[in-house]
Structure formats: structure tokens, C-alpha cells
């Protein structure tokens, strides 16, 4: 039997599948973008309330050609994405240097380590050598649960050849869970405070 | 009398002037780029020697259109420069959050304050509230002299309606002069150390 849409068009199963695939792709990108947006919003909250100064680093691009139209803004006509050499976020909070990456997974029971890249790990190691406060924010989008994991612990997992992911129960043990909210949406500085207290660090302002 | 080049072309005075103007424009850009290059090189030195982790922030761009040629890297075909909301450089050193701008002048007796922009001043104020270590590196290219001026002092000058520039003798008083060298080319962390010592700050690692 041939089905028709109300507008008379014929229903093709393949079209629906293509549309679903596009939705799925958008959802994967969206999932990451939504968490990033929530963090950016939280950073704006922290900045506006004089709590911390934390920004996402701009995507590095190699600019090859710029046009200068008369009476208009310059237009970049050719550029390429460069590979970042650092993590995405950094800033200052109570005299501490803060540095972190934000990652999302759809998984329900573990966080895949392949979400991370060697250059991010190397950068975190370098910052730890300088006594920077480095961590990752891990978001389980299906569970709507968010964890703060300090970089030293992340690096332990990363360098363990037997580990391909961090289990949820391991995070419940080793990480600090963050209650998502409204203002700010991702109150990760509460976890930072807890980490500082646990470390017993009284040297900063 | 009509002069000819060895190749037979006629000498036109206007052409020489245009070439000189182009050279001048390139020199202005070059002057800033050369100092920036020297700082970037110094940051690489500091990173490679496990002394500090300091990077220049990428220029923020608004990406509008990206092409994905088969079997080639993605090409950004349309993008616009965004206004930065922070300073150019930041990072971590001995547990301190470092944040700075680098500026150049051809002047010989004073540094114009119009080299700075309100968003940079605002950013520095915000970082100072969080006990970050903020400063500017001022380079007098004609004199080949470089100064570290802490942001609190810079902001005092900026907010003084009678000041359009900072005099060289004022910098010799209030700033820390940096001896340019080879490895690294701009050893600004020596000035940072001196500033920390002068401040009598024993709270950081």
C-alpha cells in the first residue's frame, strides 16, 4: 500500500531514515554544544558576580586570506582549523590558576577515555607541575549527572593500559558530583572549593 | 632630466614614495609582530624547560561558512574577527595565575595610553579582584628597552584624566626593566619574581 502525507506527497521510508540520521548527528553535536553552552553561561555568571574570571579559549585558526570590502568589516575568506595545544577553559579564582576540559558522553555506566587527546593530557601535566588547579568536567547526558574529576586522577586512568573508560562507580568514589542548577547552571566552583579543602591547601588567597 | 633604471624603466618619484609608505606600514605591523614573536618564543622556552605554562590566546573569530572538500582538510570560507574580551596572554607559574598584554611604541620618551583598550583594562581589574598576577610588557622599539608594569599601576595612569601617556622616567621609577636576551629573548619571569618578592607574598607555591 502506498501512503501519502496530508499534502499529497508519497511517503518514502528512506527519507524518514535520512532525516532521523541527520537528527542523530545534530544531537551528538548538540549534546556537546549544550553542555558547553551551560558552562559558558556559568562562567558569565561567575564573572558578573565577581566570583571568578574564567573563559573558553577561542578556536585557533590559521588565517590565509582576508578581504577588506570598502566601508565594511574585514572578511576572512580562507582559513584552516589549527590543532589546539591546550585545554579549552582557563582562568583565575581566589588566586588559583584554574584549567579544565568539558566532555560529554551518552553512556550510562562509564566515561570513555578516547574523549581525551594526548595534547590535552600533556597540557594538564604541565599545568600540574606549576601547581595549577586542573580538572575535567564529565557530563553523562542520559543521566543528567555531572562530575568534577581532578587531572591527576584522570591521568592515572589515561596511563593505565587496561582502562578504556572510567566506570560510573569509580567516579562516584573518586570524583566530586556537581548538582546542576539554574544560577549558575553548572556550579563547578563548589567542587573546586571542596577539592581545595580536601587537599588541605591553605597557601592561596 | 629623466632618469632610467638599469633595466631601462623610467624612475618615477611617486613610485618610490609608495614603496616607502608600504615599507612604513609593514614596519609598524612588523614592530608589534616582532615583539610578539619574541614573547611567544620566550613562552616556548619556558614551557620546554618546565618553568611556566603561558600561551597567547588565539584570535577569536566568528565562523560563518565551512567547506568540506573530499579528502581534504575543512576550509573556513567566511569568518569575521570578533572583539576580544580579555588580554592576549595568560597561564600558570609557580602556582600563580599570570595574565598580561604586550605593547610596543616607537616613541623615545613616553608610552601612549591609547595603546590600551577599555576591555583589556576591565579584564585586568577583574583578574586583580581574584588575586591574579596581572601586568603589561611595554617595549620601546627605538630604544630597545622593555619594562614590566603591574596592572594596578597601569590602571592608575589609565584612570587619571590628565595622563595621555606614561613617561619613560615614570617607568624607570615604577616599572621593572627587563634585559632582553637570547634564551629566553624576553625573560619577563625575572620581573615577575621581583614583583612577587617586593609584594612580600609568601602564600603561593
Automatic annotation (TrEMBL), chains A, B:
Q: Name one GO biological process term.
A: DNA recombination
Q: What is its main location?
A: cytoplasm
Q: Where does this one sit in the cell? A: Cytoplasm
Query: Which reaction is the catalytic activity of this chain?
Result: Endonucleolytic cleavage at a junction such as a reciprocal single-stranded crossover between two homologous DNA duplexes (Holliday junction)
Tell me which InterPro entries the record gives.
Resolv_RecU, Restrct_endonuc-II-like, tRNA_endonuc-like_dom_sf
Entry cofactor note text? Binds 1 Mg(2+) ion per subunit.
**Which domain of life does this protein belong to?**
Bacteria
Q: Which UniProt keywords apply?
A: Cytoplasm, DNA damage, DNA recombination, DNA repair, Endonuclease, Hydrolase, Magnesium, Metal-binding, Nuclease
Q: Mention any one GO cellular component term assigned to this protein in its UniProt record.
A: cytoplasm
Which cofactors does this gene product need? Mg(2+)
For the keyword Plastid, the answer is: no
Molecular function, one GO term: crossover junction DNA endonuclease activity
Q: Which family does it belong to?
A: Belongs to the RecU family.
| Full protein name | Holliday junction resolvase RecU
The species this protein was found in = Enterococcus columbae DSM 7374 = ATCC 51263
Gene that produces this protein: recU
